[in-house]
Amino acid sequence: MITIQPFRGLRPRKDIVDKVAAKPYDVLNSQEAKEEAQHNPYSFLRISKPEIAFMKDSFVEDNNTNSSAALKAAITAQETTVDQYADEVYLKGKTVFETFIKEGILVQDAAPCLYIYAQTMDGRTQTGLVAGSSIDDYFNNNIKKHELTLVAKENDRIKHMKTKMAQPGMVFLTYRAVEEIDAIIEHYTTHHTAENDFVDSQKVRHQLWKIDNENIIHKLVELFHQKVSASYIADGHHRSAASAKVGKQLREENPHHTGNETYNFFLSCLFPSNQLQIQDYNRLIKDTNGLSEEELLSKIATHFDIEKIGNTVYKPQQLHEFSMYLNGNWYKLNAHKNTYNENDPIDVLDVSILSKFVLDEILNIKDQRTDKRIDFVGGIRGLGELQKRVDSGEMKIAFAFYPVSLEQLIAIADSGNIMPPKSTWFEPKLKSGLVINVLSN
Predict the structure, then answer these.
(1) Whole-model pTM?
(2) Burial label, 143 (beta-carbon count in 10 A; 0-12, 13-18, 19+)
(3) Phi, psi (degrees; rounded to nearest 5) at 190
(4) pLDDT in tens, 60-94
């Protein structure tokens, strides 16, 4: 059973919440973050990706800018070449964070609360509960993982959190739906006005409700403890790992530790599994490993039935069906039965089939985490993005998948196995800066 806890959320002022709330740090590179925040002094990217302060034109003031001298001073820095992992970058993030608080851009709720976060995209709504999730559940594997983490990325998040003494980005968790929990959340959102309600530049609607009723909070905490046997990390493996390790460090550093401190929990949004949808996560390859087009197709045909579609974009329609774009043509590939084992949760995955019988065996891509010949494109960009990058000459081949199911993800996590890299893509992304968990008083 899992443990959740209310917390005193640090949140943007209502009138500027749409300006503060930003994309997660890990979906933008530094240049993209700079461009996103350039005309917006309130953007949370200035805290989550503080290296942008050291880039030229990181803040361009215009007629719509109405920020204080203190804020302007905090968000700018001397333009200099600086590594994004340098100490001065983390300190700049701390300075901006503290200035946001002093200037009243971020305001902390007076009492511990739970929060409901709904996102609506393309007519589909997913609604989750924002709460503190126990780091003990993380260490005891009641919060289950399906991806490996990289030490360098963990350390980066650890430095961000310890420098600011805050968890600025939510971890995206899911759990098997519980009717009683669904009913409470639906009733609350129906009978209460959202604290925040805005549509972002990607036309995604974001709504946030604050639950400050102690009876409702207690009921939800009890239901999660009694009815939810495990939660699963959908997105945010590095954030959760870093949060758990920071909490453990702070425990060891606190001689008066009681177990009730906010660092014993990490910022999370828990969505019932029946509301989520995983998108495809596709592959682009730079070359054919020295093979001619005919040789490549011949080798692929030993493991797949191949049908040439032509120049019309083709999207896979079912599991074990792939699409490939090569030299101006789309192909439908159907994996032969002997390429997978239905009883093995990893072997049956389409990413495993493609990795084993095409990327490794034919194209000699052994480690997708490190090989520079492969790139990954989330399904939100559409298959047109794959075609565009191949047609430009940047890439040679594109492969598209039918999405992994949520049940497949849960089965793999339950089995203790790890998915191949870049197997799942969740959309919409949770906004950073919408709710923050402060680790110190």
Answers:
(1) 0.88
(2) buried
(3) -75, -35
(4) 877 666 778 888 888 887 767 678 888 999 999 99
